[in-house]
Amino acid sequence: MWKIYVVGFLFFCSCSQLDREKIKDKYYVTKVDHVDDALDLSFMLDNGNFVGVIEPKVVSIGYDEDFIIVARVNSGGDRREYYIIELEPSVVRFPDENKLGPFSLEEFNSKRVELGLSEKLDFSLYWD
Predict the structure, then answer these.
(1) What is the pTM of this model?
(2) C-alpha pair distances (Å), 1 with each of 5, 10, 12, 15, 76
(3) Which domain holds residue 65?
(4) What is the pLDDT of residue 15?
């Protein structure tokens, strides 16, 4: 009987999120197992659990000391959406409060100027 529990436990563990790549501070790109080749941007809580900040399908990210910029393909797959995340060390409980967007490319570029994002900050990480 205990073998059934062990096999069930291993199956359950294997169905959780598969891969993570740290981006900046507590922000990670996470491969989601229930959607083929889908990546989201997640925030790691103090207890080690992750909460999603930007839904799949994240396709590119850039970051510096103050901001993370994210491009994702919308759920319909017909357009790109852009986000800006302001990095603040005080954000722990509700990390999505620092998320701005979704924006069109034009709105995104306008918001970049408004917030004073560095011209050097670009999309340096890509996923297909």
Answers:
(1) 0.80
(2) 7, 15, 17, 22, 45
(3) 2-126
(4) 41
